[in-house]
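Note to self: keep these together.
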Amino acid sequence: MATKLNFTSKVRAGMAAERVSAGERLAESDVVGRAQRDAVPVPAIEATIESIAPQRVRKIALDDVVSNPYNPRAFYSAETIDELANSFAQQGQITPIQVTRLPEFPGKYVIVDGERRVRAAKSRGDQYIDADLKEGLDNQRLYLRAYHANKEREEQTVFDDALAWKKLLDDRVYIDQVELGVAVGQDPKHISKVISLTSLPPFVLQRMAQFSKAVGLGHAYNLKLIYDRAGVKVAEHWLQQVLDGKASVRKLEAAASAEAGARSPGPRRTHYQSRVQFSRRDGVALGELKLFGDGRAELSLKGISPADQQRLAERMKSVVEQWAAEIAIAEADVTS
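Structure:
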């Protein structure tokens, strides 16, 4: 037992000597002094941290909040807005909205993420809402932040994408479908198919979005083809079949193909009242002039060289202008 105590005492004595030795070496080299002299002042460090840290949450007036012009969501359920409003009443606002500033909306806060929370707060008659300000967002980053936030919460639907992507391209936020596809991680063909849904009537698109768990892109795209070929009533019929669980994507594809076959062009009927045919002196046909009952005249010629086309166009222009002048004189004589 005495041996252990002696050994422990020796270890402690050695550690004490080492600390003294280390202290002497530091004092001689003035390491501590140099470190203190070279150190950045604490206020400067705090200022740097503040500049790169997110802005603190603040209360802002709801009257000063405007919707994201490139909101990735277009469809909101009134039921979910009411549920969130009730949650606000019971628990308060748990998560602040995210906002930014855009030069197009001076003095306003543009929603980056939180449109549903804003709607819920307004429905309660609230005047203020908690917000986190994100500065320095351009239109692309504004859209992508909101887009990915919705994707993470699984709130984004293909129908929201259809309207948002069309606006992004119409406003030249993205140059084309390839650039947009890279930004959102989607193939340009997928982008094109989704955007094509915007040709559907808004109320049909709204209903699809309302039941997005039952109506996928495959259903929607074929319903769009049916709408193009047979009209809105037929499209609504097939949409109801989908919602009733009676129509798969394959069945819609067959229906769309059937509608295409029903509208395939057959022999065209003539609707003109009379026609004048033209031919060269050697009997080769040149074309014809059709006269329709609604006052239209349609000239169709073929086998004319570009130079002859230009000369013919100039002569026809002269003839038509002379005829129009004669008509004007005749009408003036009648009214005088």
